[in-house]
Give the backbone structure.
Amino acid sequence: MSVTTRDLAVGAFIFGLAVLVGFELISKVPATLHTPLMSGTNAIHGIVLVGALIIAASATSTIGDVIAVGAMVLGTVNVVGGFIVTDRMLGMFKRRPAAPPRDEGDARG
Amino acid sequence: MGDAPLATLGYLVTSVCFIFGIKRLGSPATARSGNLIAAAGMALAIVVTLVRLRFANWELVVPSVLVGAVGGAVAARTVRMTAMPQMVALFNGMGGGSAALIGAGDFERLSTQGTIHAADMVPILVSSLIGSISFAGSMIAFAKLQELMTGRPITFPLQQAVNAVLLAGLVAIAAALIVAGQGAAAFVVFIAGSLCLGVLFVLPVGGADMPVIISLLNSLTGLAAAATGFVLANEVLIVSGALVGASGTILTVLMSRAMNRSLANVLFGAFGAAPAAGVAGPAITGNVRAATVEDVAALLAYARQVIIVPGYGLAVARAQHAVKELADELQARGVEVKYAIHPVAGRMPGHMNVLLAEANVPYPQLYEMEQVKHEFSHTDVALVIGANDVVNPAARNDPSSPIYGMPILNVDESAHVVVLKRSMNTGFAGIENALFYDPKTVMLFGDAKTSVTALVAEVKEMVPATA
């Protein structure tokens, strides 16, 4: 399978629209959320894992296999690590109106 | 595009999940669900892809994905909250590396089938270039934040010229590859050159500007992912990559604005201009006064209002729980306690909020810089814990300082300033701080956690609780 110029044109069409959506998505984000937001979008570009899987499926040589393994491992780390780290960060923000004591910092009030 | 209609529809659902996920990540109430929605979309895309490919080459896929998933999960679960920024940099680099390898993999596959058409070659080169820059740049950012190398800007003569020549060389190789449609050796040189460019691009950026750079590299990896979408004619890669590239760019601008630095300045600017460090402004004169735990405890316990200014040093010492306890003890003695959070306290915007939330500091006590900046003038004690650059008056009154113009917390307006610090070392930006020599300032040297714990004990002993 090879890419045609029509594929590229359709791709550019989709790319252009998605860029506009991306610009619109983020406007007034409180500074508190900058780091989690960066981390969340960081996990989303882990979508390259999909590309790595496609490369792995079509690899026909040893070197192709090696490249695909590298791409898959790196892509999976990006996806799994990215989402978990973001969730951990955001977990810190959850409101606890009457928080149960979780450690020594909570013991006194 | 797309050989299976159902797979394409699945990718559509994924794209919608990502759009709503990013949208929800931008607001505190919905952020966590946004992340989960995005993760669900990701899982769907992966399953759809595996099914569409009929689990081809699964004996290669399964172990690779397992290794990556376990590695990523363990790293993400065990990393300390203080090390979060470099963890994000590391994951980002992984994504960039993956994108570059996808370009390389497609190059390898197509080159066994004869010459490669320009329609294939151009996206291959773009994804390899951007992916490699992002990978190498992120690794340098990681090394700087992890303090595997100096956080200071690394500069050498003709740096910009070298970068320009390197870029021109890469363009020339790319042109030759597009015309020839082959050339494994040239492609390897192209990748190596791209990696060098990534390293050179981040080296001159100072540690204090690292958050902005990581955000920029994040959006670059998004673009690399979009480029792999062109390589493989895959819609979901193009859409997701474009979303991250665009939203990441906006986020980068927001972050540099929060630090009052233009993006161009971060990339090529003041921190890179090394001579300033040698002749940094008027010489700082005066003496540093070291205080004892008893002195400071008395100051605090008899104050009406105390503002705590936490910095990265607090996080490193893992003193956030002890600080919370000190604040509670002071409040039990009728002292008003507020936390002043500088937008870039810690090492990234929002980093300090995360750390204090971890210690269950009540949200209403956290004040952003804008809300608290007029409070210092009627505050008895400003307690600066492990913060340095964000309270450095040079940002206000020394035009030659590299941080000049950065908004700071004017702690020197309060009646007393107490600085808890390990030593007289300079902060992340590597510059002296006149605040420490201010006659109003006393220093309490030592590990932040030890000092604060001692303060808690001393306050308890000195004054009985009234409330």
The radius of gyration of chain A is 21 Å. Chain A touches chain B through 95 residues (CB under 8 Å). Residues 96-109 of chain A have pLDDT under 50 and may be disordered.
